[in-house]
Design goal:
Number of helices: 10
Radius of gyration: 21 Å
Strand content: 15-25%
Order of helices and strands: HHEHEHEEHEHEHEHEEHEEH
Number of strands: 11
Helix content: 40-55%
Shape: globular
Distance between the termini: 29 Å
Largest sheet: 7 strands, parallel
Oligomer: single chain
Strand order of the largest sheet: 4-3-2-1-5-6-7
Length: 333
């Protein structure tokens, strides 16, 4: 039976990867790594194992990673904006991931509620404690390393919401944008949400345009990778609309396979191929059926999809293509 053959191939592939992990550990030991280096690898691997285990039951649920200052007080307008946004996005069916601390993180978890929240805490000698909303919940995990913690923020998120914050907020925001801009993570919406008539992110936007864009350090289309707004409903729409027709994407060798919630008609595909010919290496945008390697994600096999040879460089333009797909009114499948 084909399903039996696929199961055997999956088992063989899994075993090869486990063997690779063991072989890498043995090579590390034989290369003369010291105790400190071995501790880093062992702890990082354990933190990743625990993170994978925590998120595994929720793979089918879309999630928003939220960042902002741990020092924001409950009477601050930013706190109220974050709480309102998190409540609205949870009501739309999303779960919220925060750093589990106080300030904006607690505001988002108050809004989303304990049942719709994850906490990925970081062990620090100050400030970072688990807030009372998520404290003691099985969806809370503490990390020793920022890099393993960041892995789960990006890997598990389907959208990112940034609220005003300090160095950590900017670090996380710029890292997310860098990963999206370079194709090192899934394309996803990024919103930078301010209080009504606030200037925090407008000032940031001005810096990006005057110093990064004007000097050619980023491309004009990179500005499509995020949205600056002081309107909670606009931030919500940016996230939910992103998944209106678009579902997800993955590479199969040199093809980018885009899965959609509704089949895309051929006239639209011809329009898109002409409009975005600058990012197509060769050929057009064609309908396709699931590839064999996609069987490792059976939840998507029923979805229609298209494929094309993307240049793997202009991700701002790819985001614009996705926006065009989402802008079209399509009949239900």
């Amino acid at each position: 039976m084909p399903s039996d053959r696929h199961a055997r191939r999956q088992e063989a592939r899994t075993q090869r990867l486990i063997d690779d992990i063991v072989a890498t550990a043995q090579q590390l030991a034989s290369s003369g790594a010291n105790i400190g280096e071995l501790k880093i690898v062992a702890r990082a691997l354990e933190e990743m194992r625990g993170g994978f285990e925590m998120f595994a039951p929720y793979r089918g649920v879309r999630k928003v990673a939220a960042f902002g200052s741990a020092r924001t007080l409950a009477n601050d307008p930013y706190f109220r904006v974050a709480e309102r946004f998190a409540r609205a996005i949870a009501d739309a069916g999303y779960m919220v991931i925060t750093g589990a601390g106080g300030g904006i993180m607690e505001a988002c978890q108050r809004g989303a509620g304990r049942e719709r929240s994850f906490g990925v805490n970081i062990r620090l000698p100050f400030e970072q404690y688990a807030n009372p909303i998520i404290h003691g919940d099985p969806k809370l995990r503490s990390f020793n390393y920022f890099f393993t913690r960041k892995l789960f923020f990006i890997k598990e998120a389907h959208a990112i919401a940034l609220f005003p914050g300090g160095f950590g907020t900017h670090d996380e925001g710029f890292e997310a944008l860098t990963l999206i801009q370079t194709g090192k993570c899934q394309m996803m919406p990024v919103v930078l949400l301010d209080q009504p008539r606030g200037t925090y992110w407008k000032t940031w936007q001005r810096y990006v345009e005057e110093h990064l864009l004007r000097r050619g350090m980023i491309s004009p289309e990179d500005l499509h990778l995020y949205l600056v707004t002081d309107d909670c409903e606009r931030a919500m729409a940016e996230i939910t609309h992103f998944y209106r027709n678009y579902h997800s994407a993955r590479y199969v060798e040199d093809l980018l396979v885009v899965r959609t919630n509704t089949p895309l008609p051929n006239p639209l595909l011809l329009e898109l191929a002409a409009e975005f010919s600058d990012i197509l290496v060769a050929g057009g945008i064609e309908p396709c059926t699931p590839f064999a390697v996609e069987r490792d994600d059976p939840s998507t096999l029923h979805l229609p999809r298209v494929c094309f040879r993307f240049d793997r460089r202009h991700y701002g333009r790819l985001r614009m293509l996705i926006d065009r797909i989402n802008a079209v009114d399509l009949p239900p499948p």
